[in-house]
Amino acid sequence: MLKEIEENGFVTRFLRSFSFYYQFVNDLQFESNYGKIVS
């Protein structure tokens, strides 16, 4: 039981950091595309 909780916590942290990274990459791509449109 305790092991399952630890694994779930790890998965949650992993998904959270992964979605944060994905959002970060999306923002970078959007900014570079926006810069191309403006200039």
Gap between N and C termini: 57 Å
Query: Strand portion, in percent?
Result: under 5%
Give the radius of gyration: 17 Å
Order of helices and strands: H
Averaged pLDDT: 84
Share of helix, binned: over 70%
Low-confidence parts lasting 5 or more residues at pLDDT below 50? none
Number of strands: 0
Question: Largest sheet, described in full?
Answer: none
Number of separate helices: 1
Structural class: mainly alpha
Please describe what this structure looks like.
The protein is mainly alpha-helical. It has one helix spanning 2-38.
Q: What are its keywords?
A:
39 residues, mainly alpha, 1 helix, 95% helix, rod-shaped
In short:
Helix content is 95%, strand content 0%. It has 1 helix and no strands. 0% of the residues are buried.
Which secondary structure elements does this structure contain, and how are they paired or packed?
Elements: H1 2-38
